[in-house]
Specification:
The protein is α+β, with helices and mostly antiparallel strands and about 180 residues long. It is built from three helices and eleven strands, in the order H-E-E-E-E-E-E-H-E-E-E-E-E-H. The strands form three sheets. The chain has a five-stranded antiparallel sheet. The chain has a four-stranded antiparallel sheet with strand order 3-6-10-9, with no helix packed on it.
């Protein structure tokens, strides 16, 4: 019985004052394409999901098994930013934007980083197999006085959270991940 009490004590919930309370801000993020920060102001549809199919086992009436199905839907990600003129772009950014045109596949993974309020890097995501599916410009309206916003819709294969790997590498002084 002493062993059981030790196990229960070990797995008891921590007091609420020991739990992290600071959710990450949604405004401290960066997008890198081929290692160059691209300056997007909004990212939508950032998600990973698995499609499942229920399977009832004969004679079992308490539950069903959930089986993973092959992916049947396209995953998309939308990136938005204020449109800038060609004269304001650096040469490298101009080259990258030429590759970031509709129908083009990004040659290497796109990286999205999220920082905490203090600026410390907290999350790293890799977007694999991205293809620029759509480009869209906000309405041109002489009466509004608003800025032009361009958005890019990307179809991608996978979105992977690489935070643990990158943080471990950083702890050992390895960079470039």
């Amino acid at each position: 019985m002493a062993d059981a009490n030790k196990w229960i004590t070990h797995w008891e919930a921590k007091p609420s004052d020991q739990l992290p309370r600071n959710p990450l801000p949604g405004y401290k993020f960066k997008v890198y394409i081929q290692g160059v920060e691209m300056g997007f102001s909004k990212i939508t549809n950032m998600e990973t999901l698995v499609e499942t199919e229920p399977l009832a086992e004969g004679g079992v009436n308490d539950y069903v098994h959930s089986l993973r199905k092959p992916v049947t839907t396209e995953r998309t990600l939308t990136l938005e930013r204020g449109m800038i003129g060609v004269s304001d772009m650096k040469a490298l950014t101009q080259i990258l934007m030429a590759r970031f045109s509709v129908g083009q596949r990004l040659p290497i993974d796109m990286v999205i980083t999220i920082s905490g309020r203090s600026g410390k890097l907290e999350r790293i995501y890799f977007v694999h197999g991205a293809v620029v599916k759509k480009w869209q410009c906000s309405p041109l309206d002489a009466m509004s006085g608003s800025f032009l916003v361009e958005s890019f819709e990307l179809a991608y294969e996978t979105l992977e959270d690489q935070t643990a790997i990158a943080m471990a590498a950083s702890a050992f002084g390895i960079s470039g991940i």
